[in-house]
Design goal:
Keywords: Metal-binding, Molybdenum, Oxidoreductase. This protein is mainly β. The protein contains 7 helices and 28 strands. The strands form 8 sheets. Strands 8-7-16-11-12 form a 5-stranded mixed sheet. The longest helix is centred in the middle third of the chain and has 8 residues, at 196-203. The protein is globular and about 70 Å long.
Length: 431
């Protein structure tokens, strides 16, 4: 039965331990939820209330700035930036992370979408760039960018996550950083391009061809192996991101997009697809993106991003200014399909309640979830747990470590726990 608005008193009755409220609290008129703020930000005096007789603000008494050819964020939001972590020994090798705790909704602004580069961002002239499809095909084909712009295109909102996202979770001690600074190798965009199946059909795949090696045009010559079945199912050769042509750091002029599969497989600056009977067994599918399990076997070709969620507010580095009814907000996603359910706990996992999933809830896309929480000022631990439409449930960290061991570096999707102390400070814990 759907929740309906009711009296605030009813809405403030906990439905789970720790003061977690039901979804009805989010629908109650007149109930204003508090939000966690930055622990580093100084307390600021509230702006005085205004009345109809007050003078209008100064910016209403002079013309504004002229038009610009490309919009930029307000100067008052300049602190919302990606955080860069580079390899000091290999310039051009590193990552920049999306500040998840600073964003709302599900779409990541293109300028804040995470990056992973192995040897810098190439400066590609689109007039000289070509996509070659060859190997086990009836006709090797070469496409220029203008060729591809004339094909029918498809758009899809998709989450993209690096296989190394959240890898600090494998550390023996919980890392203390803002949520975007160690979970921020995940972003969500609308990608538009040519269905790869159209191009492969045109080339004509030979029998017993099961793999394709995709290669990028960067100075690392990034390459990976992918099953042809997936490429024929839903992969696209993207030319646009969030409505505009790809930016250089995201693969301009062409990028392979493989819905629901980990970031390294979405090869940027795509220049070549070689069809074959077997995988290449390249560096990024043997030495990297592979885990040594406790039984000595190696876990390889783990393409799909598994069910995952995290609370972005309150989260590490934020502060609660005393007992109140707080808004809990976070993100969930799965490479297997739609998010079916997100549960939230405010008592360290002893009890759980369903969060509200904000529309739209799309397959292989980020989903925003929200919950209301009446904090009484006592220390506690917040958690979220995602379940996708295939029944895949996000595991506790102890269960993930028991299954995979700690020899790996990739594919961490355990439940994230935030401890709130009696002063309202929030920190990362294993609980």
């Amino acid at each position: 039965m759907a929740d309906t608005p009711g009296p605030p008193g009813d809405a403030l009755q906990p439905v789970a331990g720790g003061g977690l409220l039901g979804r009805r609290a989010l629908l109650t008129r007149g109930l204003v939820l508090a939000t966690a703020g930055s622990a580093a930000a100084p307390l600021q005096a509230a702006a005085p209330a205004v009345s109809a007789g007050d003078p209008s603000p100064p910016w209403m008494h002079a013309p504004g700035r002229p038009f610009t050819v490309y919009g930029q964020p307000s100067k008052h939001e300049q602190q919302v930036i990606r955080r860069i972590s580079g390899n000091r020994l290999l310039p051009g090798n590193g990552v920049s992370l999306t500040p998840l705790e600073e964003l709302e909704g599900i779409i990541t602004p293109t300028g804040l979408h995470f990056e992973r580069h192995h040897n810098g961002v190439p400066d590609i002239d689109p007039a000289q760039h070509r996509l070659l499809i060859h190997g086990r095909v009836k006709r090797a084909l070469s496409f220029c960018v203008d060729d591809l712009l004339r094909y029918p295109m498809r758009s899809q909102l998709l989450v993209l996550e690096c296989g190394g996202n959240s890898n600090a979770g494998w550390h023996p001690e919980p890392i203390q950083r803002p949520v975007g600074s160690f979970h921020g190798l995940v972003s969500c965009s609308e990608w538009t391009g040519v269905p790869l199946s159209v191009l492969l059909d045109e080339a004509g795949i030979e029998p017993r061809t099961t793999w394709a090696v995709a290669e990028g045009a960067d100075a690392f010559a990034m390459n990976v192996s992918l099953p042809v079945a997936k490429l024929m199912d839903d992969a696209i050769v993207a030319l646009y991101q969030n409505g505009e042509r790809l930016r250089p750091e995201h693969g301009y002029p062409l990028r392979l997009i493989v819905p629901g599969w980990e970031g390294v497989l979405n090869v940027k600056w795509l220049r070549r697809l070689q069809l074959s009977e077997q995988p290449l067994m390249a560096r990024n599918e043997t030495a990297k993106y592979t885990e040594l399990l406790p039984d000595g076997k190696a876990r390889m070709f783990t393409f799909v991003m598994e069910a995952k969620s995290l609370i972005t507010s309150p989260s590490h580095g934020q502060h609660l200014r005393g007992p109140d009814v707080y808004a809990i907000s976070g993100l969930a996603w799965s490479g297997r399909g739609r998010i079916r359910r997100v549960e939230v706990s405010a008592d360290g996992g002893r009890s759980w309640a369903d969060a509200t999933l904000q529309d739209p809830v799309l397959p292989r896309c980020m989903t925003r979830f929200r919950a209301a929480w009446k904090w009484d000022g006592r220390p506690t631990v917040l958690k979220s747990r995602a379940t996708d439409e295939t029944g895949d449930v996000q595991p506790e960290r102890s269960a993930l470590v028991a299954q995979r061991g700690t020899n790996g570096y990739f594919h961490y999707n355990a439940i994230v726990s935030w401890a709130v102390d009696e002063e309202g400070n929030v920190r990362h814990v294993y609980a």
